[in-house]
């Protein structure tokens, strides 16, 4: 059967490294980068006599994630040892949570592209669980040697496990994007897929449409970009469909993705839980999360992207604009702080997503380091909207404030005499002067070449140093042209 005859079933296991100063179970420093094997201690190396102690900050971060995703936080959860032997795991086991995780249930909202008439429609992808664990080290395989860096070993992780509710590679990528945005809103992780602080394993299976039983799943390991996640799932779907079409069974396996060949390949047959020999961690008591701890975490939660997007659309913004403004929490917070008049929401959005982001990108700054305060931008937008400034001059003022944040837009306007000229008689006089100076272009315009109109508007704006009100310039030009046409008609009679 061709691929459309199969239903694609996908579940994701996402590992997110938590942003903490120290590792999950020791006081060893924990950060991205650094010389190999410089962020290690006796516990990281699995030396005898060391004992694990849970990182309170890591648990706080994990708790907040569970709460925003609507999980049921378990008052008591247990640590377990997951055994496997590999050079990047010095102890020979990983401390994790197996049958008693700290959070169960919950869901992540992703765009529902099937609802074409509603750009804010979403579908909920249910979660099975979230659990905490420690990371392994990193192996680098060269042609002749395998090198091991233990800096990452013991870093705090949460693993977010979805139910097999995703139905396409595109949905899987949407899921990862939304999860990354939520994690960054919470400030609990850099969630950078390229750096490995956000990694994904995709479980993929196929079944005939209408079948109740799930097909045999294969797990694609260590996908570290949205592009590769989507491409790897599509490649695995093709592989499984080819097997099924030939009447061959899909063997449960762990897969890798080769982007050069755009193919998945079998690394090993899939381990089952029994292969890891889970058993309770004997060196740590159960983790207890009481109601007071939950209430304290709940009080610190930010407003999440989807509710904010809906609020922005209610203010008159497009779904696209709302998506841009809420992509990062800092940008959404900046917009909220600058919006002093709801009727100016669209104008403010245009200035932020246009000129302000352009200046930030050119200076390689983020919104958190923006020299233009929300109040200053709100003042600038107000000056444009009430007619004090033209849009063209406002850009000059914004550049000036960006360079010198001690100046306010209004102070610059008054200092440099930048108020927009809205005197109709003065503008009409400027139009007459420009028309007289360009008889050739005037003849073209009177002959019906309407594109020349822009030339005259530009000349008037240049003559006024950008201060003339553009709408009044257009009106004055229309009036002067009508007068000239009428005069020409009188002469011809």
TrEMBL record:
Gene3D superfamilies the record matches: 1.10.10.410
Domain Asn/Gln amidotransferase: 333-481
Native species: Enhygromyxa salina
A biological-process GO annotation: translation
InterPro entries referenced in this protein's UniProt entry, alphabetically: Asn/Gln-tRNA_amidoTrfase_suB/E, Asn/Gln-tRNA_Trfase_suB/E_cat, Asn/Gln_amidotransferase, Asn/Gln_tRNA_amidoTrase-B-like, GatB, GatB_Yqey_C_2, Gln-tRNA_amidoTrfase_suB_CS, Gln_synth/guanido_kin_cat_dom
EC number, UniProt record: 6.3.5.-
Tagged with keyword Protein biosynthesis: yes
Family the UniProt entry places it in: Belongs to the GatB/GatE family. GatB subfamily.
Function: Allows the formation of correctly charged Asn-tRNA(Asn) or Gln-tRNA(Gln) through the transamidation of misacylated Asp-tRNA(Asn) or Glu-tRNA(Gln) in organisms which lack either or both of asparaginyl-tRNA or glutaminyl-tRNA synthetases. The reaction takes place in the presence of glutamine and ATP through an activated phospho-Asp-tRNA(Asn) or phospho-Glu-tRNA(Gln).
Protein name, per record: Aspartyl/glutamyl-tRNA(Asn/Gln) amidotransferase subunit B
Catalytic reactions of this protein: L-glutamyl-tRNA(Gln) + L-glutamine + ATP + H2O = L-glutaminyl-tRNA(Gln) + L-glutamate + ADP + phosphate + H(+); L-aspartyl-tRNA(Asn) + L-glutamine + ATP + H2O = L-asparaginyl-tRNA(Asn) + L-glutamate + ADP + phosphate + 2 H(+)
